[in-house]
Design a protein that fits this description.
Blueprint lengths: L14 H9 L2 H26 L4 H8 L3 H8 L7 H10 L23
Length: about 110
């Protein structure tokens, strides 16, 4: 091949292109939306662990769990239970804070009840 000939350029699909093509399907988009809170918790857990310089094994030991259990939680393979989140939070010197927010974006009445 001479220097003037070029091989065809290859375009490698980026993650955002793959994600966008999947999200074009309304069913996939709904599933992605439904899973967003779980993955937000996972991202925060990983960030806190890394900020504190802890390995998965270190954090698992502090929280009284096994490293593979933490790995499955961090990869989204399992949904964390509240008591597990509380143990992890304590091991990270944090508290768990759960809130309920109206799905329609309206402002919820604080302490309102029957």
């Amino acid at each position: 091949m001479s220097t003037t000939e070029r091989s065809p350029s290859r375009h490698h699909t980026s993650w955002s292109e793959v994600r966008d093509s999947f999200l074009a399907d309304p069913a996939v988009q709904q599933a992605y939306t439904d899973l967003a809170p779980r993955f937000a918790v996972v991202r925060q857990l990983i960030a806190l662990r890394e900020e504190r310089g802890l390995s998965q094994r270190d954090l698992a030991d502090r929280a009284g769990m096994k490293q593979p259990q933490l790995a499955r939680l961090e990869t989204g393979q399992v949904e964390p239970r509240l008591d597990t989140l509380q143990r992890l939070a304590a091991a990270l010197n944090c508290k768990v804070h759960v809130t309920f927010e109206p799905a329609d974006g309206s402002i919820a009445a604080a302490g309102g009840g029957a």
